[in-house]
Amino acid sequence: MSSNRRPTTGIGGVNESPTADAYSSRKRGSVYGLSGVPLDVLASPSEASDMLSPLRAANRLIESILEAIQEINDNEPEWTELAHHLEGYWSDIENRIESFKDYSSEQRAIDDAFRRPFTVYVEFLKDLHVKIANLRHKRRAPVDLFTKRRRMKIDPELVFEFGRNIDDQHGKFMEAISLYTPHCFHPLKECLNNTKSKAMNNLTQGEASAILQLPMAAFSVSSVHRTCLQGTREAVLQTIWRWARDDSAEKPIFWLCDIAGAGKSTVAMSAIEAWQNQGTLGAHYFFSMTSCEGSSVDKFCSTIARRLVEHIPELAPRIAQAAKQNPSVMRCPLSEQFQTLVTSSLHSWSHPVIIVIDGIDECKSGAQRKKLLDTLAMAARECSRLKILITSRPDPVIEGILQPISIKSKLDIGPHDFNHRTDDDTALYINRSLTGVLPEDKRQLLSQKSHGLFIWASIACQIINENTADSSSICERLIAMDGSGNIEDLYDLVFETTDPGFHSTMRAMLALLLALFEPLTSNDMNDLFKYAGVHGSIDSLVRKLRSVVFQDRETGVIQFRHSTFVEYLGRRCTAPPINRHDKLFIDVTNAHGRIASWCLKGLKENLRFNICNLESSFYLNHQVPDIHERDSAPHIYISALPFTPTKSMLHVEGKKVYRNTLTVTQGLQEDYSGPPETLHGHEDSVRGISFSADGSMFVSGSADTTIRLWDADTGQPVGEPIRGHTDSVLAIAFSPDGSKIASGSSDQTIRVWDVESGQIIGEPLQGHEHRVSSLAFSPDGSRIVSGSWDFTVRLWDADLGAPVGEPLRGHEEWVTSVAFSPNGLLVASSSWDKTIRLWEAETGQPAGEPLRGHESWVNSVAFSPDGSKLVTTSWDMTIRLWNVKTGMQLGTAFEGHEDDVNVAVFSPDGSRIISGSLDSTIRVWDPANSKQVGSALQGHHDSIMTIAFSPDGSTFASGSSDGTIRLWDAKEIQPVGTPCQGHGDSVQAVAFSPSGDLIASCSSDETIRLWDATTGRQVGEPLRGHEGGVDAIAFSPDGSLLASGSVDAEIRLWDVRAHQQLTTPLRGHHDSVNAVAFSPDGSLILSGSADNTLRLWDVNTGQELGEPFLGHKGAIRAVAFSPDGSRVVSGSDDETLRLWNVNSGQPLGPPIRGHEGSVRAVGFSPDGSRIVSGSFDRTIRLWNVETGQPLGKSLEGHEDLVHSLAFSPDGLRIVSASEDKTLRFWDVRNFQQVGEPLLGHQNAVNSVAFSPDGILVVSGSSDKTIRLWNVNTGRQSQEMLLDHDQPIEAKKISPETLGRLPDSNDELELGE
Question: Per the record, which residues fall in region Disordered (predicted)?
């Protein structure tokens, strides 16, 4: 059978091919056994060792499957699509058969190691044929009238499953052929064939298996990229050829660096083809942001190694041995992987080897990209015969690493080259593509409009060729576009030329494609569309958008053609303005939900025992050659299922299906945690906030000189604070693609940071002569605009970090804010000279006269989403709207704020304006009538400095001079995140667990509740048992027990993990139990009561030890153990302190007197030599433990009674808490107050404690909050709102309870 004879089914509208008769004759001659499988598929052992045998067997089976499909003749699109794919796969294999026929049987021989994947494919086809043949048989069976309707319809889901399986298995089969082919059919001169074949024949089965285990990145280069058109790119190619021939090791790397869409990948393809023909190509790797796998380095080294085996078979034994000796090499660091698999194999290689790496900038992780570049640079230095061709966009990090060892070249095109001619390479391409379609003058104008960008020229030509009937008007549209090489408007035109009736379906399809973690096959995509309720097939999308979307013939997956289109779609994920329904909107948030649901459906239907089809559970992973290709991931989901929140849909539904999974009895959350109301971490005013384009993160900049990244869903900090600026960070912005952050500072610099690594990219941008007050990225991410107190606006190249043109001058005072228009053509700036100015972004020239109207300094400016309006804010306490085109004010000023208005922004759909003011409020406005919507939003305690919307418009964030960030629901106009609620009455005490992960609270509502210290969510049900209000709680030193004291005069012990009471209540007191404490070894509990007694209890037995401690003449309010556990101290309403011997229960000396009011707080110094006490008399006193005498003078400063105090771990300081709402630090050596009072609580501060390392202090207040403070700076570093129905009245916290509180550098906490 020749390669031009392709089987066709003739069903579902598929046309018969000219060779249908020959194919039909072949079909009629097939002989079937009882199983329905052609008998001649089964080859003899000698035939099985020939490469042609499994190929022929596979194609005969495909022919039989196609025949069965044709006989079913359901005329359904699912069967038609399946047949179409099978025909393509038949053609692929037939082409391979024809190419292999010219080689001898010895060259075609395969051993057991290589035979296995071929055998697996053939067995799969046999099984598939049996299934389809059975369906055909059932349809032929006689039926009665009542069963006919049911029999005639075959479930489309079953057909989709057939398609998914065949796509997957065929891809693995073709990959195996690709690995095998070069071993015998390498396209070098015949004289090399014997050597190469001999090299492969020397491989043992174990070595071959080791190579097959190395995972390959699934990316078909030839499906995406083409070689250069003949006669184009000759200059740069000649430069590359000269470099490749140069044996000098001084510049072993050639870096082809140019803008996106310039044609770098096409040049790389031409180089690959030339070097492959010469026998010098070692490997190639094409990065692509269109897939997760293609944009990471996870499979980079193993793919390079596999390519080396493919192109230079003599290296196969070396690489196989390296892989065999290092079975866990893929878990090693990148540099070690490359050294093991690649560098070590090339060390003694005497021939030149060239590796091509395209689009290295599309490796999304900046940290991975830097590690890869460092690894490649080291390898190039170590291997004298290795040369590397790298292509990328301009990037300072890449340049910094490659500059010493590379030749840097560009394609001499694009907007940065003003001397290019219209008859350049793109003109040649356009002329060849459109000759006969457009006249010469139109082609010339298109060439000029392309500005040398090949991607622009390519897509423009495709649009015209696909719409030849309307080619003239489309050409006019292209020529009329703003600017040259405008890729944004070009992609807009792609969609405008499609059928409007298809737009809704198209948007839904593109959203699903964009949201996918990895590209899917057409069958999977159709299944996803069907499940998501999207009407239409992926084939229709590819047909209508073939200029930007395609199907890879080798892998069958659907992919985007170019990274610029992915970036374009990313920018279209923001909801368009309400008056711009023509703008494409990609609802990627909804798409993520649909894909997640579809994945869960797949898990539900396909999870089963031994899903990897392992022949034996005794095999080790490295003994299964294709273990990486087998479906093992679902096991992970089953394993994680028991740990999901108990009320989540995943947990509830999953447990119904998988009843035999393990059960977690304690410690689970009920729901997934949302963000807290307030995000803490910055130590000073938050001056800027910006969301990433996908809305998953936002970034903040602060006067504390740091930049912080936050998870938008949880409110948790992402990584460590980014440091580098030496003064306040005043402005912050995410790049449109989410990979970079730009920051402006009072240190007069702009810095660009890599989001993934948090590292600075290149050098700081310098030029401003005063603080940088504002900055913004252009919509395409290529430029940055900045405004400064030096009265100027500047433009910068975002990739090169270089200024663009001269500063924009015109303002006569500080520039306070800058913004790009949505189309990137204009820049707006505001100033303290009371004006707003518009500038042309391309030329830097003023666009009209200044906008005047504000009566005081203008603080901010922002464009509406459609670019037609500006909103500005001012110290005149107003907000104003302006018409961009006319420069005239629209309507009346927005009035309502009671102080200067610092910031205002439009919602993404343009229907609302949100403003923030020095009056500490946020207000929502309707731009159509200048009226306020609802009441002012309150929550911040100081001036609102910045506001930013999430891309989908559902949330906005505010940053304040109070150092906090708050998240707000934009639809409901209320805070995001619900404070914990539960107690129905006053909260009397709270305590931290020793690990710091739990908080216990007790209340007059007779309950005890446990809370997650990180999220603030309640853990489990309330602990019930007391018959009166609970006034005191304490954790045991190991955190396993909780003791509580109550108005019911009882003490109860609780198992924290089991969430239940232990033993019977400890009874003995005759009045309320006001205080409880564990001994340092956890064996004893000490209690103090309103019956004027102290009692000791045995934790293990629950029995009282000895007699009550008698002596006080008033209620006991506070108790504490000495550090060695031998003594206790108590404080009472009788205005005295008493020391007691634990063993005897006897007082140690007379009462300690000096206070003139109830003693509410007591504690021992860490060395046990001193006691500190706090009283209603507003004083703090220190006492000598041995003598009972006061030490020095009393500590005075609080303006109301002292509720609580604690020694620092080093014993040098005391922190106190008071009814006057403050915390104060005291130096015990000189009895002086240290620094200013800590302000922030809005009501009495009832309790305070040091962390064990002395870095943090925790406080609890009647304002219902718990706050963490940094001791060194005195600044608040965390707040958790527990929002009880009553204030927090008291809190018992010892240093032990803070044993593992997160310190100021812990990335798990919300604070500093």
Answer: 1-25, 1281-1312
pLDDT at 609: 66
The CA distance from 1064 to 1049, in Å, is: 13
What's the pLDDT score for residue 1288?
A: 39
Residue 584: which of 509, 518, 515 has the closest Cα? Answer: 509
Write out residues in the chain with pLDDT < 50, as ranges. Answer: 1-46, 143-152, 182-200, 413-423, 632-637, 978-981, 1278-1312
pLDDT value, residue 978: 44
Alpha helices by DSSP H, 111-213: 112-140, 145-152, 156-185, 190-201, 205-213
d(C-alpha 477, C-alpha 117), whole Å? 52
Q: Are 1125 and 1083 a contacting pair, CB within 8 Å?
A: no
CB 478 within 8 A of CB 493: yes
Helix 264-278 with 234-245: angle, nearest 10 deg: 40
What SS3 class is residue 379? Answer: helix
What tokens does 1256 get? 């943090």
pLDDT of residue 1133: 94
Give the single-character DSSP code of 791.
Answer: S
Question: What is the per-residue pLDDT for 1284?
Answer: 41
- Which pLDDT belongs to residue 128? 83
> From CA 620, how far away is CA 627, in angstroms rounded?
10
Q: Which structure tokens are listed for 817?
A: 């804010």
Give the torsion through C-alpha atoms of 1115, 1116, 1118, 1123, to 10 deg. Answer: 170
Per-residue pLDDT at 693:
86
- Long-range own/partner contacts, residues 1207-1210 (CB < 8 A, 24 or more apart): 1207/1163, 1207/1164, 1207/1165, 1207/1166, 1207/1172, 1207/1250, 1207/1295, 1208/1250, 1208/1254, 1208/1271, 1209/1166, 1209/1250, 1209/1252, 1209/1253, 1209/1254, 1209/1295, 1210/1166, 1210/1254
Determine contact, residues 1163/1249, Cβ cutoff 8 Å: no
- Three-state DSSP at 1001 gives strand
Give the pLDDT score at 135: 76
Dump the DSSP string for 223-278. Answer: HH--PPPTTSSHHHHHHHHHHHH---SS--EEEEE--TTSSHHHHHHHHHHHHHHH
Per-residue confidence (pLDDT) for residue 366, from 0 to 100:
75
CA distances from 916 to 788, 872, 923 (A): 21, 12, 7
DSSP category for residue 1211: S
The CA distances from residue 1235 to 1194, 1230, 1242, 1250, 1312, in Å, are: 18, 14, 20, 17, 20
pLDDT at residue number 469: 79
Instruction: Say what the pLDDT of residue 655 is.
Output: 75
- Residues 110, 183: Cα–Cα separation, whole Å: 10
**Res 33: pLDDT:** 35
- Tell me the pairing of strands 386-392 and 253-257: parallel
Cβ partners under 8 Å of residue 408, min gap 6: 255, 257, 399, 402
Flag whether the pTM goes above 0.85: no
**How buried is 19 (Cβ within 10 angstroms: 0-12 exposed, 13-18 middle, 19+ buried)?**
middle
Separation of alpha carbons 96 and 55, rounded Å = 8
Residue located via tokens 């025949």: 67
For residue 444, the surrounding DSSP H or E stretch is helix 440-450
Which long-range CB contacts under 8 A does 872-879 form with residues at least 24 apart? 872/830, 872/836, 872/904, 873/901, 873/902, 873/903, 873/904, 873/915, 874/834, 874/900, 874/901, 875/900, 875/901, 877/901, 877/917, 878/854, 879/904, 879/913, 879/915, 879/925
Cα separation values, 1001 from 19, 144, 359, 469, 673, Å: 83, 73, 56, 76, 20
Q: What angle do CA 1234, 1209, 1240 make, to 5 degrees?
A: 45
- Cross-strand pairs, 817: 830
What is the pLDDT, as a whole number, of residue 363?
Answer: 87
HSE, CB side, 13 Å, CA atoms: give it for residue 1249.
24
Q: Provide the pLDDT for residue 1247.
A: 77
